[in-house]
Write a structure and sequence with these properties.
Two copies of one chain form a homodimer. By secondary structure, chain A is mainly α. Chain A has a single domain, classed as Arc Repressor Mutant, subunit A (Orthogonal Bundle), CATH 1.10.10.10. Chains A and B meet through helix 1 and helix 5 of A and helix 1 and helix 5 of B.
């Protein structure tokens, strides 16, 4: 049994997880700090947010920067790979939108 | 609970299924007839092939044409949506290749 391609597993993992999609959407819109992320999304708890952020860093999609300030400032940004990865997700969403429109016209 | 986007579910379903990926690859390479598909892929049975073809038609990715010949000729082609859908899969594979290369260089 050959192992499944890594990017396949990442795509699958992330499109199955609405919180991961929300977090990526926030970073895309310039919401980079965990506190602001939590306030921006209804129902997103600190625990779930931290889990998703850790996963996205582990996948190499986000990188975490800690600024040595008081209080400590933490920000998440896309890596180069992450930039490309979210373009994939955008392409998936464009296709989604297109077929929804087609179905609306047909009904 | 809102329903998950349709294209998300399709992407997930297909990247999890090596036979679906094989079938799409065959059609991309001009192998359009079920008999030729079965001969081209080691381990692909008629039953599994037919299931995957039916699914890909149901998803609107492939369309089936039956030519009224003796013996009956059946061919599968991409729909317009299918063309766009496989470009997504290609983009996923390009990204895969790119990160594998990066990891090779790093090791």
């Amino acid at each position: 049994m050959t192992e499944r391609p890594q990017v396949h597993r990442m795509v699958e993992n992330i499109i199955r997880c609405k919180w991961s999609l929300s977090v990526l959407d926030l970073v895309k819109n310039g919401v980079n700090r965990p506190g602001a992320m939590e306030r921006a999304v209804d129902g997103l708890t600190t625990k779930v947010l931290n889990e998703r952020l850790r996963k996205l860093v582990r996948f190499g999609i986000l990188e975490k920067t800690t600024f040595p300030e008081v209080p400590l400032r933490v920000e998440y940004e896309f890596t180069d790979f992450g930039q490309r990865f979210i373009r994939l997700l955008e392409a998936i969403d464009e296709l989604e939108e297109e077929i929804s429109n087609t179905m609306d016209q047909a009904s």
